[in-house]
């Protein structure tokens, strides 16, 4: 199962319309740590997380990067009603991610 990739405009539209919780994984294609983090997220998603999960290449998201003050990648941003409520830069373990997204 792959995480649905969005562009910045689609994510902004989604955050305006979204009520409830969601998560966005910011990455870059050449980042090895991002690839590991994405794999951990895929495992957590397959295990049955309860919130929608999206990914976004930070190179194509300058407005959100600045607005949400994303300092580095990988970065998992938890949203509630379209607003960031938590940023996680350390993908500690699949279990940690799963519990965060449950």
TrEMBL record:
Thioredoxin domain location: 6-88
Organism domain of life: Bacteria
Any Pfam family the entry gives: Thioredoxin
InterPro entries linked to this entry: Thioredoxin-like_sf, Thioredoxin_domain
Protein name according to UniProt: Thioredoxin
Species the sequence originates in: Paenibacillus prosopidis
């Amino acid at each position: 199962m792959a995480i649905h990739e969005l562009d910045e405009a689609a994510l902004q539209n989604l955050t305006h319309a979204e009520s409830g919780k969601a998560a966005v994984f910011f990455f870059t294609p050449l980042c090895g740590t991002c690839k590991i983090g994405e794999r951990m997220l895929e495992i957590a998603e397959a295990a049955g997380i309860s919130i929608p999960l999206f990914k976004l290449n930070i190179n194509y998201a300058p407005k959100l990067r600045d607005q949400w003050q994303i300092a580095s990648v990988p970065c998992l941003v938890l949203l509630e009603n379209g607003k960031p409520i938590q940023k996680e830069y350390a993908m500690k373990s699949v279990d940690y991610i799963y519990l965060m997204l449950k």
